[in-house]
What does this fold into?
Amino acid sequence: MTTIRVLTETIIGFAAAAASLPGAKGATHCARFTRIRWVKKGVRGVKLEAVKVGNSWVTSQEALARFFAATTAQAGGTTEPERTPAQRTKDSMAAIAQLKAAGW
It folds into this structure.
């Protein structure tokens, strides 16, 4: 199970997360208990990464992205995996090496 990286990820409270997520059946935002259910029970075997701080739950924008990508994949949809900064750097260096080898 992946956990939230508190020092490197963008931490957001559940209220802020709700404001950015659409609700079901025309609701203006995602209900509080929906987000708590995502943490405790999950969706299609995937749980939302979150931590409880005092009396409040918090998650991260990156954890939401991972959760949505994983639940979409479980439902048979396709998602493009996000590359980490290290993967992008490695890919860029490989592309530069290929260009130099080709005479560019």
